[in-house]
Design a protein that fits this description.
The complex is a heterodimer of chains A (428) and B (369).
Chain A lengths: L1 H28 L15 E4 L7 H16 L7 E4 L6 H12 L4 E4 L5 H10 L4 E5 L4 H4 L4 E6 L1 H20 L12 E6 L4 H15 L6 E6 L6 H13 L5 E4 L4 H9 L3 E4 L8 E7 L2 H13 L6 E4 L6 E3 L10 H13 L28 E3 L5 E6 L11 E2 L1 E4 L2 E4 L17 E4 L1
Parallel strand pairs in A: 1-2, 1-3, 3-4, 4-5, 5-11, 6-7, 6-8, 7-18, 8-9, 9-10
Antiparallel strand pairs in A: 10-12, 13-14, 14-15, 16-17
Chain B lengths: L19 E5 L5 H27 L5 H11 L2 H26 L7 H19 L5 H30 L3 H23 L23 H20 L1 H11 L1 H6 L4 H25 L13 H11 L4 H24 L6 H16 L1 H5 E5 L6
Antiparallel strand pairs in B: 1-2
Classes of the chains: A alpha/beta (428), B mainly alpha (369).
């Protein structure tokens, strides 16, 4: 008798369960993901950094994280920073340890942390995991996992304008034009992939908007943080006749080389306190951290892809440095207003890609490029959905109000502009 | 011109004498030895606590709480502590046989790294094509074989040409790192410099993904203990270490012992490399070894190449490393310089106290008494 009752009640339970799950499916159709709201006083958040505050990149995150936590009124016991966590299983272990310790919101700051953060996110469904510079959130559909970046190309474009003005001040003739030899600039890049290429292209386009005949030589260090390599690379660029240096790498290597050689330097992630410092662009992560904290407090889903802009306060340029040309600030203010009014950095009419096909081998993009007779991009397929296959699948050229442009950071937050445009030479 | 000869007869000086002198002591009782080491350890930790507290502006005694919390605070932390101990123990076991025969093998990092590289590349290229069991066996074999290769090259040069093995093994580390960088540049087409994580070739879970690693290296330690202490091979290793000429005189083939022992060393290092990859399927990187090849030199030396003691030294270093991670974040340090200083300081105290184990200071009695 007892068994019968038990089996009937179990069967009933199953039917109810099935119905309930159908109902749940219906709800899921609306893709409304809800989390439990966490009162601000109980919230605990952590930041995982690849290096410590001796790296300009990580320092930028660390400072912003502290500021955001203080702005939100979190006590010191409510937020934690761990540094020097390599891009491997150690990152997962740290993230999982935070989840064990009752943290609600965990950030990681380096590209290579992504698979390990994602692994933790799949395991700890109630904890939100946010990863800066990553590419997988929009395809993985893990509700508690998010990517973030900023339209830093706008900041780099502005920094490029300041660099162009500096070249004109140093070498311009009466009409403000600069000879070809003096219009050559150098760029120290970390790795040959989209985040870096997008950065130096926007910087170059900024320079080009002031000095039309500017050319740029790019060299990679194949490391995000290698002070010696960054310094010697900058020195090599200066030796080949580059009149101004910028960099996308995290140490003080390039600024130091510029200071020693008396060559103007456009920096990244913050002012460098050198006499040759022109300006720097940086991502201000405070708005994103505050946004994420708000989402957790309100129980809302954090955007799978968050792209901060000049408008959100995420993209910043520093105050002009000692070496900046006179009148730079006024020009930058004007350009900033133009950007706010819809000026496109990657406006396809401002650059050509005729020589892009010259880059063969692994980085050949020829199959992805469609261009008109003058060499302006008309279509470009990029690897937006990063399935690990390196197969480009999405056309990212758009036309809006008569302007054809490369829609950077629109389809996912992390950059995907990876064309080497004319005027830029990459020296391997 | 004759040089002026100085006629300067100094007054006879009283010879300066240190108020103490140093005497070698032999056979310090074990109890006293342990006491000396414990005192050094506690002293080092106290000093570290004061330094950390000073720099962070926090109560130095919370240092100890954090140290223990970082190692034992949660179940995961305890597992991580013992995994790290096991990996360090594995690396130490790769070095101890060679150290015992005075073959200064500084190539632990490189041997582990080529092991990881081989295991990773097999899973990376054949992952979807082979059944999991075959794949893992292949990864295992390749890792061990490449570890052996990396160890046997300097051993051949040492045995047949008398080449300096210290420099040779050290340089092999750089070649291994360069090899990984080369593979990364040519395989990873996105240019991001990141090897992806593996989806195949991951060891099955036994309770969790850490227990197998821990069991394997602790069991291996037991086997190695017997091998080194009671087998003929182990005896030959120690004779070669004591004196090559004695070994030759009693009919030991020294070349063969060197080669055979380095094969063993390389195989165990390759095994460590295999577990670094296959345990969780993490992506390869040139610093995947986390410098264990050098850390293990210290764990082995501290233990005087005695395996049971090595287990303790490995546990101690894993404890300090894991614990300092917690101290770092708990004290709000946003880089690892202070924690590096502290770890160095603790090591220094423990290593330097070996002086007091081997020597004693005798103070001179005052004259006239």
């Amino acid at each position: 008798m007892f068994k019968k009752i038990l089996s009937i009640s179990l069967a009933l339970l199953m039917v109810v369960g099935c119905l309930a799950s159908f109902a749940a499916c219906k709800n899921n159709g609306e893709k409304e993901v809800k989390f439990d709201a966490v009162p601000l006083a109980e919230l605990k958040t952590a930041l995982i950094c690849l290096h410590g505050d001796n790296s300009t990149y990580d320092k930028n995150f660390i400072d912003a994280f502290k500021t955001a936590c203080k702005n939100k009124g979190l006590t010191e016991a409510q937020y934690t920073i761990v540094t020097d966590i390599p891009e491997g299983e150690a990152c997962y272990n740290k993230a999982a340890e935070f989840a064990d310790d009752g943290y609600n919101l965990v950030f990681a700051d380096s590209f290579g942390h992504e698979p390990y953060m994602l692994k933790a996110a799949k395991e700890f469904k109630n904890v939100r995991f946010c990863h800066a510079t990553g590419t997988k959130a929009h395809t993985e559909n893990v509700a508690n996992y998010s990517n973030a970046f900023a339209s830093i190309y706008e900041g780099r474009y502005l920094a490029g304008v300041a660099a162009g003005l500096k070249l004109v001040e140093l070498y311009g003739d009466a009409n403000g034009s600069v000879s070809d030899a003096n219009a050559k600039i150098g760029y120290v890049g970390a790795w040959p992939y989209a985040e870096v290429i997008s950065g130096y292209t926007s910087f170059y386009l900024g320079v080009k908007s002031v000095v039309a005949n500017a050319t740029m030589e790019v060299r990679y260090t194949n490391s995000w943080y290698d002070e010696t390599a960054e310094k010697t690379t900058a020195q090599a660029l200066i030796a080949t006749g580059c009149k101004l240096i910028s960099q996308h790498a995290d140490s003080m290597g390039a600024p130091t080389a510029c200071e020693e050689a008396g060559v103007p330097n456009v920096s990244y992630n913050g002012a460098t306190n050198t006499t040759t410092f022109v300006i720097a662009s940086k991502i201000n992560w405070v708005p994103y951290f505050e946004y994420a904290i708000d989402c957790v407090v309100e129980g809302k889903k954090i955007d799978a892809d968050y792209t901060g802009t000049i408008g959100t306060g995420s993209v910043e340029i520093t105050a002009v440095g000692a070496a900046a040309a006179a009148g730079t600030q006024a020009k930058l203010d004007a350009k900033k207003a133009e950007l706010a009014n819809g000026l496109k950095v990657f406006d396809c009419s401002t650059f050509t890609v005729k020589n892009a096909k010259a880059y063969t081998g692994e980085f050949s993009k020829s199959a992805c490029i469609t261009m008109d007779a003058e060499g302006h991009l008309t279509a470009y397929t990029a690897d937006v959905d990063d399935a690990g296959d390196y197969v480009p699948e999405t056309n990212v050229i758009k036309t809006e109000n008569g302007v054809t442009y490369f829609a950077e950071s629109a389809l996912r937050s992390a950059p995907y502009f990876d064309v080497i445009i004319d005027g830029i030479t990459v020296v391997e | 011109m004759e040089p002026k000869i100085e006629q300067n007869n100094p007054k006879p000086k009283k010879r300066f004498e240190l108020p103490f002198h140093i005497v070698k002591r032999s056979n310090l009782p074990l109890k006293q030895k342990i006491l000396i080491y414990a005192a050094a350890l506690v002293g080092g930790l106290l000093l570290s606590a004061l330094i950390c507290g000073e720099f962070a502006g926090k109560n130095p005694f919370s240092f100890f709480g954090l140290l223990f919390k970082g190692c034992f605070g949660t179940e995961r932390k305890r597992w991580l502590l013992f995994t790290e101990t096991a990996l360090l123990l594995g690396t130490s076991m790769a070095l101890i046989p060679s150290f015992k025969m005075r073959f200064w093998n500084l190539g632990g990092n490189g041997q582990i790294l080529v092991g990881s590289l081989s295991a990773y590349s097999i899973a990376y290229f054949l992952g979807s094509k082979l059944p999991e069991g075959v794949l893992i066996s292949l990864m295992f074999a390749a890792a061990v074989a490449s570890g052996i290769l990396w160890a046997i090259i300097p051993a051949i040069f040492k045995a047949f040409f008398g080449t300096n093995e210290t420099l040779f093994t050290l340089m092999m580390n750089y070649i291994a790192a360069g090899l990984v960088l080369y593979c990364r540049a040519s395989w990873i087409k996105s240019g991001s410099g990141q090897f992806p994580t593996l989806s195949a070739g991951i060891l099955p879970k036994l309770y969790n993904d850490k227990l197998i690693t821990i069991l394997v290296f602790f069991l291996l330690a037991a086997v190695m203990f017997v091998y080194l202490k009671y087998s003929k091979h182990g005896y030959e290793i120690s004779v070669v270490g004591e004196s090559e000429n004695t070994a030759k005189y009693i009919g030991i083939n020294v070349k063969r012992v060197i080669l055979r022992t380095m094969v063993l060393s390389g195989a165990i290092a390759g095994l460590v490399g295999f577990f670094l990859i296959a345990q969780t399927g993490q992506g390869l990187s040139p610093d995947i070894t986390n410098n264990r090849g050098f850390t293990a030199i210290m764990t082995s030396w501290l233990a005087a190449f005695d395996l049971p003691v090595t287990v303790l030294t490995c546990l101690f270093i894993a404890f300090i490393t894991k614990g300092m991670e917690q101290v770092r974040s708990g004290f709000g340090f946003t880089n690892d310089s202070i924690s590096k200083i502290v770890i160095g300081l603790v090591y220094f105290c423990v290593i330097s106290c070996a002086f007091f184990v081997n020597y004693k200071i005798v103070f001179r009695k005052k004259e006239g008494k």
